[in-house]
Amino acid sequence: GTVAESPSPDTTGNQNSTAPTTGDAAPEQPEALPYDGPNVIAIMNETFSDLSVYQNLHAGYEGPTYFKSIDDAVQRGDLYVSAYGGGTCNTEFEFLTGNSMAYLGQGVYPYTIYNLTHAENLAQQFSNLGYKTTAMHPNHATNWNRENVYNDFGFDQFLAIEDFQDADTLRGMVTDAATYDKIIEMLQTDDSPQFIFDVTMQN
Question: Looking at beta carbons, which pairs linking 178-186 to residues 24 or more positions away fall under 8 Å?
Answer without folding.
Answer: 178/138, 179/43, 179/136, 179/138, 180/43, 182/136, 183/41, 183/136, 186/134
